[in-house]
């Protein structure tokens, strides 16, 4: 067991001042106390302890877009949401299952490093780059779950049902990995 002292810790009852946190040898929380027992070594941490944050809306594959949507093609006149969306579609068509797992692991590890303990992943990169289902229809979702486990963060996987490309429009080629033709196929 190890003991850590914080100036204060936020709890459901309000601030605990000072706060002593007891951890198991594996780094798991064993207890929160207002005092440490006698004759134990206590590591002092200057500052405050807060509960872990939750990322309430993630599209992990987009983490690989950093820097890709900031440069316009030579024939583009201005940057807007639509130019960003086209860059996102190009990326979506290039991400393999291994790529998705690696990208998501990097993102989720960064979230965990910054104090996040959970992520809600709005998942719509369902199919292969050709738009066909993988042999395992849950392949890409399972890769996200594996990435979260590797990074040590909880995940709520939200498989998004896309059936249209825009308001009242058929899907475009860039959306072929997202589109699920029928609710029955989505539920399968």
Structure commentary:
The chain has helices spanning 81-92, 97-113, 139-151, 183-187, and strands at 2-11, 14-16, 19-23, 29-33, 42-49, 53-58, 116-123, 154-159. α2 (97-113) packs parallel to α3 (139-151). It starts with a strand and ends with a helix. Strands 1, 2, 3, 4 and 5 form a 5-stranded mixed sheet that branches. A 3-stranded parallel sheet has the order 6-7-8, with helices on one face. The chain has 188 residues and is α/β, with parallel strands linked by helices. Helix content is 25%, strand content 27%.
Short description:
By secondary structure, the chain is of the alpha/beta class. Helices cover 25% and strands 27% of the residues.
What is the typical, i.e. mean, pLDDT? 91
DSSP strand content:
25-35%
Q: Distance between termini?
A: 46 Å
- Sequence stretches where pLDDT stays below 50 over 5 or more residues: none
Q: Looking at the structure, what is the overall shape?
A: elongated
Number of helices: 4
Q: Output the helix-strand order.
A: EEEEEEHHEHEH
As a whole number of angstroms, the C-alpha radius of gyration is 22 Å
The major sheet is characterized as: 5 strands, mixed
Structure classification: alpha/beta
Helix content class: 25-40%
> How many beta-strand segments?
8
């Amino acid at each position: 067991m190890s003991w850590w002292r914080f100036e204060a810790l936020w709890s459901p009852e309000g601030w605990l001042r000072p706060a002593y946190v007891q951890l198991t040898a594996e780094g798991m929380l064993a207890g929160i106390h207002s005092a440490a027992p006698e004759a134990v070594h206590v590591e002092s941490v200057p500052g405050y302890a807060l509960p872990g944050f939750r990322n309430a809306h993630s599209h992990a594959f987009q983490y690989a877009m950093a820097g890709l949507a900031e440069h316009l093609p030579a024939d583009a006149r201005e940057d807007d949401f639509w130019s960003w969306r086209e860059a996102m579609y190009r990326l979506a068509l290039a991400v393999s299952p291994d790529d998705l797992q690696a990208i998501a692991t990097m993102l989720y590890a960064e979230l965990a490093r910054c104090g996040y303990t959970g992520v809600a992943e709005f998942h719509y990169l369902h199919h292969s780059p050709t738009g066909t289902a993988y042999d395992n229809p849950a392949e890409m979702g399972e890769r996200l779950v594996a990435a979260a486990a590797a990074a040590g963060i909880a995940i709520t996987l939200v498989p998004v049902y896309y059936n249209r490309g825009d308001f009242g429009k058929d899907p475009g080629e860039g959306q072929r990995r997202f589109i699920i033709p029928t609710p029955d196929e989505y539920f399968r």
